[in-house]
């Protein structure tokens, strides 16, 4: 008993240490009318905003987000994109994989550690809610005393997005319609939540579009002449691959998905949904004028106007239009420069994470567009993925194996050797399934993303694939069909970049390597919202037996209702 | 052991008896594009249809509906309107009151007995989903050998509805907006799911409206000359009070909300949301032509065109337009005939349910429109009702009393004597609350619905109030302010009709009496979708200790998550 004061003192120290490293957010999610591109529609906001609040933290901090769902009839879940959720796989926020959705009226606590400095994102991971505006930035700083391998004066974050005027319900219902109805090109491109739609477009009711609404004033990036800015750029487009540029200013790429890259200079940055980059830009041009910031849709023919913002040299007025015509950006169908950028991204020499020189397993994921029954779907190795209604993490941990199909998907399709990726898919029986890949814990896995021709002849799209729970090394890109015996010889096993999202280019392949060392269940999918909805994804399980006791807060749906014992 | 054959035989008899009385439905709910009034929008369908399938049963049958929620991100719940749910209060389908909502992917089993012949309805009871098209008819026949106190040749059901082009999300977001945005007049009136909107209305995109779509061909009621039809009419309007008529044909009202009425003849039937009537109509007019069926919005000034159908004398072509101009119906603001119809509805003399001559408790519910903070709300006794997120039935049965406010609402407001119903509400502090009335089991309760002036001077609306779990006797209507000492002397305690839904007319009052003899928790609310959303309702508890073990299928939301024990 005489030690009580000491114990209290110790407790206080521990608490104060702990408190310094916990960042606590209280967020309320609801529908509100917003006009991000001047057209008024329902947007899912966080605390009244879209994009939502930026999470600012330091490496090693614990983030606590108490998320209150104030939607009327609709559930929600938020994914912390790029955060590996080590020791917290239940906090990944992927509905159907790691948690049941959060019901209206409920408050769900996300708690996880941001264990590595860098630029990350968060967004809804349920249905197609991301498209409704539920997204934001996560910026994790280095620990005190540590420095990046580059210098800058100021730090800024923006998220690039595309924007549809239809509701996510309509978009999803179109994709499920027979005959299939495509979601169409986005109506506009947003830069940090701001875009511009032409209200004089025929068929637009006057009271739903107002170009003088301050919500759709152009995005302004104000700079002081001579200063260097670290601009953290993330893309959360529903569909669009983008080219981003700042008129008259080069950008030096220094970070990708939280990893430092060997710096390289670009005039325009290609960025795919789910990727983040840091670029350095110096305000070293004529300071008496402003410059255009341009976001342009590439990789597919489209009708979407470029997104425009203003690079504003202080003290010019931020709304002063640049005297020039905005740069028109690269041609949408010029694949070469995009592949070249992919190839240019290598690890910074001082920050190389050694890549295992061999792998234990190779999984070749053939990406095809297929017809299943009368629907159009995307399939991976002839399987169009569907989410189960009981989250895998719970099913696997609590032995509810009847809730999903137990036959695993194949590591390579039968007849892969003979498959001609240059032709539309032959009429083969693609099916839907919610089966998953089970990976041996701590093994090294190679994934080959193999692109192919779509249903329509002469067309192959770019797909940005995002892996939950891991970073992977990008060990190779190639044109055409992957050659199992030859191509691995040319892998970059010296200084490959680590990323969490990577494109597979039209008619090409991309090779990744990762170590299955994070106990949990992890989605890996095309980050195009409608493509994942149409089945373009797989799921990996690893080390489920090492996952600690699951919080009951992730339960309540599907077969987990059997756990209700009042 | 030698009795086994006998036991088997008995079991078979029991099973076959039991099976004959169970009506099993498998329904799948999802969003589909439909054009009920020629304008294409997302509709919640059941098995591809809106209105959904009609439930056809016989008195005493058990209805089993396995409801699969195939909405993408949205929950659902269905209320069986007019079914008292004796011994099954958990099957009432009222989200927040009797159950947690049904999650996407889940299949919920509703199981209840239809214990009385008559005309009933079902519809969503969650958010404003009813407006999205999730509704249908329940028709319960008399037991074999029993006959109604009227004769007819054929039996038909229709549901009248109003129809909005905005999504329910937009409607709800408007009502919650600051400043308040009204939902507006309905775009059209539907008769059994069919209406007609003018596609040439300015601002309507050509590809979203098509007057030649067969989905919006007019409703046709084909009759054989000389025959008499029992037409069961239900209204599930979101807003509109309606007048319904068949050009040139009188209608004899014979049933109201499942009770036989002393027959009376009308030219047009006034019907409020939540009510059902059976009328007899005889095809006794010139059979060489067709006649108009007209549904018209009354009780509030409006811009909604009348709904038109065709009363088709066989063998005339069903699409042949009548040679006449459709009847224009009664003036919207002529209250007298509507009150007169209410007064005319009395119990059929051979089917009188004796009404208790005294009551144990009187609750006067003052209906006012109020501003709370900056919102517009409806309040009952200065309390604007909000639903809790843990259903009352579970909270009360399992002692989760912290989940809602425990101070009960008042039986009459302070200062009721001095309240002037002819003026806009004085600036008094209406509040929001989720508290409920607790009724002593088996007592007789009088409810006085007292109407009043709205926020705007010179205006008082009609509100149809619907009681769950009971029928009530309609013992009186009056103009102006209810007089506690005098008006009860004039109650009809001889042959009042029993109903589950009743209007309170502008600046008037309606008096109801019911016996609190159905263990459970029961909503009582204005059936106008937006009014309930804005707080116009109360909840009654009675005999909670007599409620049997709750099924766990109704749990999983709010505080019931604490019951999850894997």
TrEMBL record, chains A, B:
Source organism per UniProt: Smallanthus sonchifolius
Top-level taxonomy: Eukaryota, Viridiplantae, Streptophyta, Embryophyta, Tracheophyta
Protein name per Swiss-Prot or TrEMBL: Uncharacterized protein
